[in-house]
Amino acid sequence: MSLWNRLRARTFICSWSSPLRRIPCKHHTHSLASQQETMAEVEASRGLARKKSMRNRNPEEDTNDKMFEDKVKERLTIAVVGGGIGGLAAALALTRRGFKVKVFEKDPSFFFRRQGYGLTLQQGSFALTALGLSDAIVAASSWSQSHFIFDSQGQLVSFWGPTWNEKLEKAKDCAGNEEKPDWKKLGGHNLQIPRQDLRKILYEALPEDTVIWGSHIQDIKFVKHDAGEQRARHGTISSDHDSSSSDENCDKDWGGREVEITFKDGMVFRAHGLIGCDGIHSTVRKLILSEPKPLRYLGYIVVLGIFPNKDFPLCQERVFQTSDGHTRMFAMPFNSEKSMWQLSWAMEEVDARQLSSDPKALFLEALKRCKSWHFPISEMIQSTAFELVSGYPAYDRPPATPEEICPLAGPSCIAMIAGDAAHCMSPFKGQGANQALLDGVAIAESLHRHLSRGQRGWLKACQGLSSPDPIARNISDEEISDRIALAFRDAERQMMERTRSKVELSYKAVATLHQPAFVTPEFHVQRKALGGAETVKKIARLRRAGVSAYTANVPGQLERMAFGMCSIRREPSTVEDREGDKRENQENSAGMSGSKV
């Protein structure tokens, strides 16, 4: 149970002007079940009151509420630390909701970062749809139509994907429906997009000068000033940065709480809220959490490479994996002319750190491990330029509770972390970037929801004032700070609940994908619920017919033979996975597809 739910189960919050002004509930000594039942009754009565209020509303009230929201958002500046996919998605979502945003990134420029690997758009497509970026995403992506697994000699182990008839029918159905997202019109294909290309799309959608490059964060402080008090302005920027935005971020009459961010070059920036999206080695996390959980080394090194695929039919429009039971390669499209490979194997952490610092050593080690593997594995590696080889030791963090990632300053803190800074996970389920995209949109939605005057618990201070202007009868700045804090706590709770299963399954995938059983059809039939003993017989029949990695040398032959002789469609790995995917899709659809941000 989250911290805020526990507080609410024991108390009634009578005013947001002070988080300490609470009236104890008369049932506070009862059991937890009794407390929850009491709160359920209260929430039900509030829900009825809200519905009644909405029925009695008139257009003038709606207009006043919109004016109120705009007035509040005009005064607020949200700082985002980290210019990766998660940080830029959060900034764009906030901007689309009317907030002023500044992003601080330590890279000196956008193009400083490596091209990086790619990602398969899964749950992240909900966020990108909400941001209105589907056309740009489809244009920048490549696709895959099937997924094959081979052993190191090229023998077929497993495969899945829609049959040809299913793809044609799905494409035909979707093409005539203009309301469906563009990638849903691709008829059974998955989209893969380079990380840097996705990052560029997000970056170019932001207002100019949103991102301040070369910003190395040094310290974070939370301060409270009275309105009109003489102090450093919001957005005070040193001579090394463009200071043109200083005045527009300054609100000398602000009487709520502020977060003061100090950077190593002397720049100081004040904001009304802070979101740390600065990755697995997050500085924000170290500065605002009391006991941040240490990273957990997963025992494996991951090596990445990007190469031209025109001479390798196996690499075109499909994903494949090859394994010898210990070392595993995963390959997928990168763009229309290139593919990428990911090679992983067990290694001590010290050795992995040392090896990952030398691209040439990574290249040679990858080539040595795969020299006797089926065509075109060695050729793929040999055609990869040194500068496009990278590697890293794989880490994650055990799943945390919302309370564990709540800042040291407590529930009223106007800062939070998201993305890898909050829930980093192994790369073997492809969930990291997808979840970071969802985080960004969810945080913006939470802030928008909690700063809407019509929401539950929103009390107007100064109701006794005689001013006829509805905007003048607003809540106090301190109450707005409380609302920002509550929005962050709500977003943390939703984020950690959503990502818990992803972190756990990504951790389990490390052992699952690197074991001798991985190269047996029986293992995958059981793991993916692919049809039992009958499917094993079908795989054996395909093997006898000569279907292997080499079948792909004739364009289209691999899918024609495999799906022509038997249809295998991938299902979620476990019952928990199936239920989790169903629940997450329902939540994402309900929370994002209904309205664009």
UniProtKB/TrEMBL annotation:
Keywords annotated in UniProt: FAD, Flavoprotein, Membrane, Monooxygenase, Oxidoreductase, Transmembrane, Transmembrane helix
Pfam family, one: FAD_binding_3
InterPro entries in alphabetical order: FAD-bd, FAD/NAD-bd_sf
Transmembrane segments: 76-94
Polar residues composition-biased segments: 587-597
Annotated segments matching region Disordered: 43-68, 231-251, 569-597
Gene Ontology molecular function, alphabetical: FAD binding; monooxygenase activity
Domain of life: Eukaryota
The protein's name in its UniProt record: FAD-binding domain-containing protein
